[in-house]
UniProtKB/TrEMBL annotation:
<feature type="transmembrane region" description="Helical">
    <location>
        <begin position="29"/>
        <end position="49"/>
    </location>
</feature>
<feature type="transmembrane region" description="Helical">
    <location>
        <begin position="252"/>
        <end position="272"/>
    </location>
</feature>
<feature type="transmembrane region" description="Helical">
    <location>
        <begin position="214"/>
        <end position="232"/>
    </location>
</feature>
<feature type="transmembrane region" description="Helical">
    <location>
        <begin position="284"/>
        <end position="307"/>
    </location>
</feature>
<keyword id="KW-0812">Transmembrane</keyword>
<feature type="domain" description="Sodium/calcium exchanger membrane region">
    <location>
        <begin position="32"/>
        <end position="183"/>
    </location>
</feature>
<dbReference type="InterPro" id="IPR052946">
    <property type="entry name" value="Alkaline_pH_Ca-Antiporter"/>
</dbReference>
<dbReference type="GO" id="GO:0005886">
    <property type="term" value="C:plasma membrane"/>
</dbReference>
<protein>
    <submittedName>
        <fullName>Ionic transporter y4hA</fullName>
    </submittedName>
</protein>
<dbReference type="GO" id="GO:0015385">
    <property type="term" value="F:sodium:proton antiporter activity"/>
</dbReference>
<keyword id="KW-0472">Membrane</keyword>
<feature type="transmembrane region" description="Helical">
    <location>
        <begin position="61"/>
        <end position="85"/>
    </location>
</feature>
<feature type="transmembrane region" description="Helical">
    <location>
        <begin position="132"/>
        <end position="150"/>
    </location>
</feature>
<feature type="transmembrane region" description="Helical">
    <location>
        <begin position="313"/>
        <end position="335"/>
    </location>
</feature>
<dbReference type="Pfam" id="PF01699">
    <property type="entry name" value="Na_Ca_ex"/>
</dbReference>
<dbReference type="GO" id="GO:0015386">
    <property type="term" value="F:potassium:proton antiporter activity"/>
</dbReference>
<keyword id="KW-1133">Transmembrane helix</keyword>
């Protein structure tokens, strides 16, 4: 009975009710504020339930659960907006996926390293697992977001149908290979590494929840994530109108979508970093980037058969420079297997540059 009275149970339920009442309607200022508050509450509830599931299944499966769940929601939101939108949504998938890659590899990684280093001095993690994940991110991003700007079979930054099919299949193959490596063959590469002078945290070593509690949280996690994407869709007209009103490029809508759907993982990664589980934070960051490309591109490629208009995937010159710099900086951060607050600060400055240039291209 007590479990049913907790805020992590009734907030997702209220968010679903609000979603049903507001779906397809034009909202005034008061409903918008209520929806925003419930959206934030659903995000926090999703983080809580994801951590319960993660504690039960253990690492790295816990990170994988949240990464896949959030990416499925991201894909659903992109598709919904592309179906209901006009020609300006042709690049929405690219903008959202690239924003997700930058937010995870610079924002989540940088914030986790900074939080961890502020507490432990020097953060330690497994370079083999993180390096393999980073290499997968770099390959997926190059194949799906960089090459379309340089191919010549199709005019503009687009793939031809054959090229898009190849990129979608290879993205899916890489994603499956990463999951098998992370969870089966080399699972130890992705397990948390003890920090120097780490203090034992009772919460980090608490007994895992029962199967019943884990299933209960898994169900509420799905409810919370559906509420997040649904309420984000309800607020999307407001988001688009606000972006236009302040004079930001329409591509910034993709950044807002990525920020919304990645908020649960950001909070979970920072919490793990505070407890000294830096590897868990990196698993969340890079796993989310891999899932974002490896699942989104094949899905969008398949749906493009029925969607009207072009599918613009190629990045522009500024985005290409930011992506290349991010890969170089990330390699220099990951290879040593240890990092300080300086590396965290560098990644966060990269995120700031991305956000600033997204507003002022």
């Amino acid at each position: 009975m007590n479990r049913l009275l907790t805020w992590t149970t009734y907030v997702p339920a209220l968010a679903i009710v609000a979603l049903a009442l507001t779906w397809g309607r034009t909202l005034t200022i008061i409903p918008i504020i209520v929806v925003t508050l419930l959206l934030a509450g659903a995000v926090l509830a999703a983080v809580h339930h994801a951590e319960v599931v993660a504690h039960r299944v253990g690492e790295p499966f816990g990170s994988l659960v949240l990464a896949v769940a959030v990416t499925v929601i991201e894909v659903g939101l992109i598709v919904t907006l592309m179906v209901s939108g006009g020609p300006e949504t042709a690049s929405l998938a690219r903008d959202t996926v690239f924003a997700a890659v930058m937010i995870t590899t610079t924002g989540i990684v940088g914030l986790s390293l900074l939080v961890g280093s502020l507490r432990f001095g020097t953060t330690l993690f497994n370079a083999e697992g993180s390096g393999a994940a980073l290499a997968t991110v770099a390959m997926l991003a190059t194949m799906s977001l960089v090459l379309p700007s340089f191919t010549s079979s199709q005019p503009g930054p687009e793939f031809s149908p054959a090229q898009l099919t190849f990129a979608a299949l290879m993205s899916l193959v890489l994603y499956i290979a990463y999951v098998l490596t992370q969870t089966i063959r080399h699972r130890d590469f992705f397990l948390p590494v003890a920090q120097e002078g780490e203090r034992i945290d009772e919460e980090a070593h608490a007994d895992p929840p029962s199967n019943r509690d884990a299933l209960y949280s898994a169900g509420l996690l799905m409810v919370a994530l559906v509420a997040v994407v649904g309420l984000a869709k309800v607020e999307s007209p407001t988001i688009e109108d606000t972006v236009s009103a302040v004079g930001f490029p329409h591509s910034f809508v993709g950044v807002v979508i990525a920020l919304l759907v990645l908020l649960p993982e950001t909070l979970a990664a920072v919490r793990a970093a505070r407890l000294g589980r830096i590897q868990t934070s990196l698993n969340l960051a890079y796993g989310s980037a891999i899932a974002s490309i490896g699942l989104t591109i094949p899905t969008i490629a398949t749906l493009s058969i029925w969607l009207d208009g072009p599918l613009v995937l190629g990045l522009g010159p500024t985005q290409l420079v930011l992506l290349a710099l991010t890969v170089v900086v990330s390699v220099l951060t990951i290879v040593p297997g240890r990092a300080t607050r300086l590396q965290g600060s560098v990644h966060l400055v990269l995120l700031a540059a991305f956000l600033f240039l997204a507003v002022n291209p």
